[in-house]
């Protein structure tokens, strides 16, 4: 568990590289915003989270398998993670921010990720 990183993960780096290559400019891990979004597009007022499918429980994803050992511990841990994500997104939206979630499994293919970012970041701004 100590080797699990919260920043600069492989999926996050893929999103950052893709967004930057598209000409998008962003800030990283703004601690003054609820949930410290992974990427923040201030001009567009968008907060983007890159969620690991396992830790944040991506529904129906094969990467979100349940551990076989200590199931009681893991159920509580995953529920707390999902609830924390929900609260952070809710607070950001109350503050007037648009929120976007990119899942780890969506970062595997560069072209798919590029299309996903175009579609999810489209809007006023």
UniProtKB/TrEMBL annotation:
Molecular functions per Gene Ontology: endonuclease activity
Family annotation (Gene3D superfamilies): VSR Endonuclease
UniProt entry keywords in alphabetical sequence: DNA damage, DNA repair, Endonuclease, Hydrolase, Nuclease
InterPro entries: DNA_mismatch_endonuc_vsr, Restrct_endonuc-II-like
Family: Belongs to the Vsr family.
Name of the protein in question: DNA mismatch endonuclease Vsr
Organism for this UniProt entry: Dyella lutea
Gene name of the encoded protein: vsr
